[in-house]
Amino acid sequence: xxxxxxxxxxxxxxxxxxxxxxxxxxxxxxxxxxxxxxxxxxxxxxxxxxxxxxxxxxxxxxxxxxxxxxxxxxxxxxxxxxxxxxxxxxxxxxxxxxxxxxxxxxxxxxxxxxxxxxxxxxxxxxxxxxxxxxxxxxxxxxxxxxxxxxxxxxxxxxxxxxxxxxxxxxxxxxxxxxxxxxxxxxxxxxxxxxxxxxxxxxxxxxxxxxxxxxxxxxxxxxxxxxx
Length: 227
Hints:
Strand content: 15-25%
Structural class: alpha+beta
């Protein structure tokens, strides 16, 4: 968001957090809430990501971990902790965010209340976990110990995942740099409309042409060419 980058130069923001100010991140949403719904923001005590909220409900403990917290927009990747300088410049109290734990840490245990409600064993350990792509990367064996092996996923969205041993962002923030659930880092290129966009194109504009024919035609276009 331009408002954030007007107060914090993009180069500094990328160097600290690994990313530009992206509308879909949590920090810009909090700033929007403060400006658009000040009464609601004034009543806000904690800001949690979805899986971290579930962990809080089950255990009563507030916690997050670096791989998901990288998508907030305020995590200092060198320290794997909230960047007080960035948040201070934006007028956000760092205490609104939960403590950052390792992805493999046990952050709490299922309470008796939620054991009764869910059928889960009381005291069951709840682990911090990971963001969706980081968790998928672990399942695929993509770790910072093998930075030469990455993945390309094409579905409704499209994701390029490339592990790193050090937090080395693209200076212009053209791809995301996130913490990995294994304690390292990874580059992440994401488009929210990938194969789903191809299906839309087929259904709306070329229903009489097969998907295979559209793909074959697209393959004849040189990379980077504009219409």
